[in-house]
Specification:
The chain is an alpha+beta fold and 240 residues long. It has one domain. 15% of the residues lie in helices and 32% in strands. The chain has 3 helices and 16 strands. The protein has a 6-stranded antiparallel sheet, covered by helices on one side. It has a 5-stranded antiparallel sheet with strand order 2-16-3-14-15, with helices on one face. A hairpin with a 4-residue loop joins strand 14 and strand 15. The radius of gyration is 18 Å and the shape is globular. The protein starts with a helix and ends with a strand.
Length: 240
């Protein structure tokens, strides 16, 4: 048995010499997949009193008051000092914040940045310059940078970078499912993007950094603090 374990370790080390990113075990990440055909994924920003939810805890309490159960939540795209979404934000087909096409410094503006969007049963991620609102988009949030673009890692992400942070992002799997990832350990942009690519994502979008939080009781991961702009959430009706 010890010989077999030793061989496995050797194989992993040798593989590490041939790939272009640090190897991270799956337990380095919180991963939550959403099947849009079976689950109800939406974006939330304000309640019916026009108050920011801000935290996952506030959203959870509101959802429970509306006789729903919160299955999953994660902070969405980046936000401004007043907790309004930075860049495009669409909720229930209404454009509440316009698309941001400015040129500026910061992660959000590391071009190409991108947009995550939802129709009734389909999710997509595209570069900001490729985004078109055909009136069928139910929800959308803009962020940046793109992590994976048409199967390739963003060209400006640096292999071996010492810029380490907790990070969260969203990608689209080959079967159309939406996959949310939160790093449990500090990680650089390149390795984070590489993880999405290793999962088969053709496109993936960075959401935010050290502030990132997620709520996924099915994965034994409970974080309800924070103060955010938009929030992703998956809900279901309570069983009476």
């Amino acid at each position: 048995m010890k010989t077999k374990i030793g061989l496995l370790v050797l194989i992993i080390v040798l593989l590490g010499l041939f790939i272009d990113a640090k190897i991270y075990a799956d337990d380095s990440f919180l991963v939550y997949k959403v099947d849009l055909k079976k689950e109800d994924l939406k974006l939330y920003w304000k309640n019916n009193k026009d108050e920011n939810f801000g935290s996952i805890q506030n959203l959870k309490l509101w959802i429970e008051k509306n006789k729903l159960t919160l299955k999953f939540a994660m902070n969405g795209g980046m936000y401004k000092k007043d907790n309004s979404p930075q860049g495009l934000y669409i909720e229930k087909q209404k454009v509440l914040v316009a698309l941001d096409t400015l040129k500026a410094a910061g992660n959000f503006y590391l071009k190409p940045n991108g947009v995550f969007y939802l129709t009734r049963k389909i999710a997509g991620i595209c570069k900001t310059e490729d985004f078109r609102n055909d009136g069928k988009i139910q929800y959308a949030t803009q962020s940046g940078p793109m992590l994976v673009i048409d199967g390739k890692i963003h060209p400006d992400l640096t292999k071996g970078s010492s810029n380490l942070n907790i990070r969260n992002g969203v990608g689209i799997l080959p079967d159309g499912k939406v996959i949310f990832v939160l790093s449990k350990k500090e990680i650089n942009f390149y390795d984070f993007a590489h993880y999405f690519k290793s999962l088969g994502c053709k496109n993936a979008l960075y959401l935010d950094g050290f502030v990132s939080r997620a709520y996924a009781p099915s994965e034994n991961w409970i974080q309800t603090d924070g103060n955010f702009g938009a929030l992703f959430a998956v809900t279901e009706k309570k069983n009476n």
